[in-house]
Structure formats: C-alpha cells, structure tokens
Amino acid sequence: MDYLLTEEQLMLKDMVSKYAAEKIAPVASENERNHRYPAEIINELSELGMLGIYFPDEYGGSGMDFVSYTIAIEEISRHCASTGVIISAHTSLVCDPIFRFGTEEQKQKYLPDLLSGNKIGSFTLTEAGAGSDAGATQTTAKLVDDKWVLNGAKLFATNGKEAETFVLLASTDLSQKTRGISAFIVEKDTPGLSIGKLEKKLGIRCSSTAEIILEDVTIPKENMLGELNKGFKVAMVTLDGGRLGIASQALGIAKASIEDAVKYAKERIQFGRPIADLQAIQWMIADMKTEDDAAKLLVWSAATMKDKGLVYSTESAIAKLKASEVASFCANKCVQIHGGYGYTEDFNAERYLRDAKITEIYEGTSEVQRLVIARAMLK
C-alpha cells in the first residue's frame, strides 16, 4: 500500500526500515532475553529525529506529519516491539500533551530536551485501583504555599526507570472523580519521587514498566499542565494519539509475523515439498495479509484525520482495536505455521506472540475501545 504515501513518507520508511534491519534486528532477541534497555539504539534514533517526528522544528522536532510517525513506529516495531513502545510512549504520551496543552514557557523548557532524546518521558495514569476507571485515582495534589504537593503511587509506567520527565495525573478534588483530576509535569530528580517495583512481563521486556512512588513531592505551581481539574481531558486527548502509536506497534508485530511465516513456509519441507504448497498454510497466510492490510488502512486513515486537525477519537479506537487484535492473530498463525519450532526461542515467532498480547491491553483494553466506539455510535 505504499502508493498511498508521499515521497517524503516513502523516504522516511526506507530510511527507518534499513536502520532497523541493520541495527535493531541483530540485537533484539538478546536484548529481550536479558531485559536490556536498548540505550544505544534509542540514542541513534534520537539523532535521526525519531523522537520528535511530527513536532515543529522550532521546539527541536523533525517537522513531519503524524502519518510519518506511525510509519516509523511500525518499521521499528517490526524488528523490536519494545523499542517501538519506548518511542511511542515518550512521543505520544509525554511530548504530545506538553505541546498541545502546555504554556509557551513549558514548551520551551521541556520539549527541546524531550524531542532531541536528551531526556526520556513517561506518562503516569494507572494506579492499583484505577486502571480503566481513571476516576478512581487516589494520588493527590494539594496546593500548599503556592506549590503543588503530590502523594500516592502509580503503576505500569512505561519508560518509568529511564524517564527524567513525567506527565502525571493526580486528583485535585477526590469528590469529583474524573472532574477533579489535574495533569502535572514532574521531573525525576524532585525530592520524594522514587522508582518502586519493576514489573517482570510476558513480553516487551526491553521496555521498563515501573511503579512511581510520590511522597510529598513538591513542584512549582506553574508545573500544572492544562487547567485545574481538566486533567482527565488532557489524558483522553493524549490517549487518542497514543492509541495510534500502539496500533502502529501492533502493525509492526503483524508485519514481522507475516514475513517470518512466509519465509519459513517456503523453506520447511514436509511430505516431500515446502509446506507453502499446502492449502492450509496458504489460507493462513492469505488471512494474515488481508487482516494486516485492513488494519493498516484504519491506522493511516485515523492518523490522516489527526494531521488534518479533525476529531478522530472514534477512529483512533477503531484502529487500535483492529490493529491489536490483528497483531495477536498474525503472531498466533506465525507460531502455528512454524509448528513446534515456533514454540521455541530459536525462532522469533514466540516473541511476536508474547509482544502482541499487550497491544490489546495498554492504552485502553480492547473492551474499552469497543465501549468508546459503541458510545459514539449510540449517542
């Protein structure tokens, strides 16, 4: 479907694809087995402008569009889904809300370091009792002597271990549930902020998933992001774009699954011929390709809407729902086509399957996406 892309987008795709194949692919499996953060790769991708693709150059961005961003995340995730989500969480969930809701002073202070990759960002919303139900947030922010004092704990913070800048959601009025949540920018070296438990995960093992502990964390009043008690809106608008980042990660996993399945099917000999000659295998590959193309069109369509400044919340939910389920579908078929070998670490198929599952969960479960879509249809 490259015919849908502009010349600039095609050049970006070619550049990122070549880099990922040469630099990311050879070390992806080893990094994953050792839960190793790919620091060198992130630094190189930063130098290539991948951490600020769709932001204006006045803040240090690359000045491209959001479709280009989804293309880059897909090509990176095709070889390492962990690296894809490191960049996606940093870009979509931290840089984007600061750019969209931040004051000019906040943009000038934080975006240059974030977009250049000098600092990594992390978005912190989830708590032990507040996952899909953001209104149950118990982390608090109280104004004391013209400064905000934060207390509580956040879970599942992607990039939490490496991040130096956090976009954090806290309740400024517990009685108002979602209408009493505000957003803040918090720096890692602020006294009282500490990194707690690091999760041991099924997949996406090169990306840290951390608990963030806040004990009387005191930040300047001007570190509020957006308006008082309007943080839920900040989170929801941010997640619209973030879901397309995850959808693009899912596309990368699906693409890798298809490529590996096709390659293996042509090489594996059974009954005196390649298993690619068997109709059962052919139909699996045909279904994988069809589902992947459908998901990609949905992602690019929603990304185009974002570029045009249109409301795309429903389309983002549709794209994320479809792409994440397609990733799991294709990864599962890839394992099936590999047979017993697909269940071993000698092949990448099992990694694709483990990595794919989380795309159906984070930044809104598939059930939440269906709820968003249904509400839009029935309102």
Number of domains: 3
How large is the radius of gyration?
Answer: 21 Å
Largest sheet: 4 strands, mixed
Low-confidence stretches: none
Question: What is the count of helical runs?
Answer: 10
* Overall geometry: globular
Order of helices and strands: HHHHHEEEEEEEEHEEHHHH
CATH-defined superfamily of the largest domain: Butyryl-CoA Dehydrogenase, subunit A, domain 3
The total strand number stands at 10
Distance between the termini: 34 Å
Question: What does this entry look like structurally?
Answer:
The protein has about 375 residues and is of the alpha+beta class. It folds into 3 domains: about 1-115, Acyl-CoA dehydrogenase/oxidase, N-terminal domain (Butyryl-Coa Dehydrogenase, subunit A, domain 1), CATH 1.10.540.10; about 120-230, Butyryl-CoA Dehydrogenase, subunit A, domain 2, CATH 2.40.110.10; about 230-379, Butyryl-CoA Dehydrogenase, subunit A, domain 3. It is about 50% helix and about 15% strand. It contains 10 helices and 10 strands. It has helices spanning about 5-35, 40-45, 65-75, 80-100, 105-115, 230-265, 280-305, 315-340, 350-360, 365-379, and strands at about 120-125, 140-145, 145-160, 165-170, 180-185, 195-200, 210-220, 225, 270, 275. The strands form 3 sheets. A 4-stranded mixed β-sheet has the order 1-4-5-8. The protein has a 4-stranded antiparallel β-sheet with strand order 2-3-7-6, covered by helices on one side. A hairpin with a 2-residue loop joins strand 2 and strand 3. The chain is globular, with a radius of gyration of 21 Å. It starts with 6 loop residues before the first helix and ends with a helix. The relative contact order is 0.12.
